[in-house]
Amino acid sequence: MARILLLENPHVSADDLFARADHEIVRIDHALQGQELIKALDGVQMLGIRSKTAVTREVIEACPELVAIGAYCIGTNQVDLEAANEYGIAVFNAPYANTRSVVELALCEAIALTRHLPEKNAVLHDRVWEKSAAGAHEVRGKTLGIVGYGSIGSQLSVLAEAMGMRVLFFDIAERLAIGNARRLRSLDELLASSDIVSLHVDGRPTNRNFFGRDQMDKMKPGAILINLSRGSIVDINALSDKLADGSISGAGIDVYPDEPDANGDPFDSPLIRFPNVLLTPHIGGSTVEAQESIGYFVTGKLMDYWRKGATELSVNLPHIASSPSVDSLYRVAWIHHNTPGALARVNQVFATAGANINRQILATAGEIGYMVTDLSGELPAHTVQHLSDSEQNIRLRVLKREY
C-alpha cells in the first residue's frame, strides 16, 4: 500500500484508482512550497500536484521515499526534471486531456474581444445604456495567427476555420497544416498579417518573455492578443503600454508571471485598468469535463508505474509500456545511468543467481537507462542487493505479481 499526497484539488476522479488499490490518500486543497512541502511528503510515495506547487531539487533530495509525481495539468515546468532523473522519480502529466477546454476559451475570447463585449458589459454594470455597432466585427473573415501548432493550436485551427476564419500558424517544430491553415516560416510575417494572435507555447526557460515589445511592435495595428499558455512568455508591462496607446486593441490573458497560490489571495496586474482586457484566473483547462479526464488519466499513469513499472508518456524517463508477462512472478524495474555494458552486467548477476528471465526490455534517453526484467522464479535477496549497490544504479524496484 502506498501513501498518496494530492495538492491543489485535482478532480475527485483522481482518487478512484488509488482507492480501488486501498492506497492512503491525503488531500490538501492548496499549493505547498519548500519546507512545508517537504514536511507533508514524509512517508509519501506518490505526489499529485497542479501548476502552483514547485517541486524543487531541495524537495526531491529531502524526500527519498518519493517514487513518482503526477502533474494534473499540461505543463511540468514546476518540477525540477533534472533532479527527478538523478533520483529516479518518474514524472507524468496530462498533455492532451484539457485541449478542448482551452480551445473553446480561446475562441470565446476571440469573439468577445472582436465584439468589444468586455467594455459593453462593464458599461451596463455601471447602469449606462450604450448600444452601438462601432468597432464591433464578426470573426468570420478575420485572420487568426496561431503561435505554437501542437495539440491545442492545431485543434483551435480546425474550429476557427469552421467559423470562417483564415488561419495562419508558426511553430519552430515541423508541423503539418490541417485543413486550409497555412504555415508561415516567419513569426514576423504572422504577426503582421493576423487580426488575432493566440499563443500556445510551452513554459521552458528559453521561452521566458518570448513575446515582448519587439513582437508586439510587429503586430498588425489594432490586433488582439490572447495568451492561455504560460504566464512567463508575455512581457505584461510591454502589453500594458501597447494597450494604453491603442496599437493593440484588446487582450485575453489567463496566465500571469506571478500567480496567487490559493483562492481568495489578492491579485494585482498592470492589466486590471483596461476594460478591453479579459482577465481570467488560469482557468483555460478548468472545466468539469477536462478536470475529470485529467484525474483519471494521470492517476492511471501513476498506478501503471507503481504496479507494473510502465513509463508510457512519462515526461522524463525512457518509455516502456508493456505489462509483466503472464507467467512472471517478479518484475525488476531498474533506473540506471546509461553506460556501456549495463545490460550485460545485469544479466550476469541474474545468471549467477540462477534466475529465469522471461522477458527483458531496455530503453534509454540521454544519460538515463530504464530496464525491466520479468522473472518466472524466485529472486534471491542478495541479487537485488547486488544491483542496488552497483555504480550504475539510480533506483531499483522489485514488483511482485498481483494476479
UniProtKB/TrEMBL annotation:
Lineage of producing organism: Bacteria, Bacillati, Actinomycetota, Actinomycetes, Actinomycetales
One function term, GO molecular function aspect: (S)-2-hydroxyglutarate dehydrogenase activity
Family classification: Belongs to the D-isomer specific 2-hydroxyacid dehydrogenase family.
Keyword Endoplasmic reticulum (UniProt): no
Occurrences of domain Acetolactate synthase small subunit-like ACT (ranges): 335-378
Keywords assigned: Amino-acid biosynthesis, NAD, Oxidoreductase
Pfam families: 2-Hacid_dh, 2-Hacid_dh_C, ACT_AHAS_ss
Segments forming domain D-isomer specific 2-hydroxyacid dehydrogenase NAD-binding: 110-284
This enzyme's EC code(s): 1.1.1.399
Name of this chain's protein: 2-oxoglutarate reductase
Pathway: Amino-acid biosynthesis
GO BP, one annotated term: L-serine biosynthetic process
Catalysed conversion reaction: (R)-2-hydroxyglutarate + NAD(+) = 2-oxoglutarate + NADH + H(+)
Organism: Ancrocorticia populi
Role: Catalyzes the reversible oxidation of 3-phospho-D-glycerate to 3-phosphonooxypyruvate, the first step of the phosphorylated L-serine biosynthesis pathway. Also catalyzes the reversible oxidation of 2-hydroxyglutarate to 2-oxoglutarate.
Domain D-isomer specific 2-hydroxyacid dehydrogenase catalytic: 5-316
